[in-house]
Design brief:
2 domains, about 10% strand, single chain, Rossmann fold, Helicase, Ruva Protein, domain 3, two-stranded parallel sheet, mainly alpha, about 240 residues, 6 strands
Length: about 240
């Protein structure tokens, strides 16, 4: 007996860690669909909503050189990314380490040798610890606000970080505090991630772009300008 029915075959979005390689090569329709997954932690197919399993987060790379055949991410979508990093070229010392690692692997693709270093349950527990057990003082929250406001009101900026940018900086600083063995946030945690959390959320005026000004310069100036809190309570 033949049944003419559809069967859902779940694609790569149904995972815990999604790597979107060269995301600016994906068409706008695909980029827009990814927004729902990133923001709502769900996927809608033929009107039916499927919740994504926790933890879920997206890592994406972007080709910064070739623009032919690419679709630059709109500002609203860039705003969904917690932070943006630019690795640049490795130092000579790190390049030597890369070459030695390749010799040790004995092959180009070492993925088959990768072993887990943390379980899913432990990862979720770390997320809960960051959320509930890492303290951030009001003075540090005001420090974040002043940095964001300084960036937003800069006369060279058309549009600055939304509240999502301030939230990203707060969450990153709490995670960094845990990594550094503290249960409280200090101003240096904010400084560490200010550029990575805010620069990709800034739109500069055209004349300043032509002069070579970068969003990172705006954030760097703001961090140097805003006074660091004199007293920060640990709990």
């Amino acid at each position: 007996m033949k049944l003419e029915t559809f069967e859902l075959v779940k694609g790569p979005i149904f995972t815990n860690i999604l790597l979107a390689d060269e995301i600016n090569r994906a068409p706008p329709k695909t980029q827009a669909a990814l927004l729902e997954a990133m923001e709502e932690r769900q996927v809608t197919i033929e009107g039916i909503t499927y919740k994504l399993e926790e933890p879920f987060f997206v890592l994406a790379t972007q080709n910064p050189i070739e623009y032919e055949g690419t679709y630059p991410l709109p500002e609203a979508q860039l705003d969904r990314f917690l932070l943006r990093l630019s690795t640049g070229y490795p130092t000579p010392e790190n390049l030597v380490k890369i070459l030695k690692s390749r010799l040790k692997w004995g092959k180009d693709d070492p993925t088959s040798d990768i072993r887990p270093i943390i379980s899913k349950s432990n990862f979720l527990e770390l997320q809960r610890t960051v959320e509930h057990d890492i303290y951030i003082d009001d003075a540090v929250l005001e420090y974040i606000t002043k940095i964001v406001e300084t960036v937003r009101t800069d006369p060279r900026v058309i549009a600055g970080p939304s509240p999502r940018g301030a939230l990203a900086l707060m969450k990153l600083s709490k995670a960094l505090a845990l990594i550094r063995g503290r249960d409280f946030v200090i101003p240096d945690d904010i400084k560490t991630f200010a550029i990575s959390a805010l620069a990709h959320r800034i739109i500069l005026k055209t004349e300043y772009i032509l002069e070579g000004l970068m969003p990172e310069d705006i954030v760097r100036e703001a961090v140097n300008k805003v006074p660091v809190p004199k007293e920060v309570r640990k709990r």
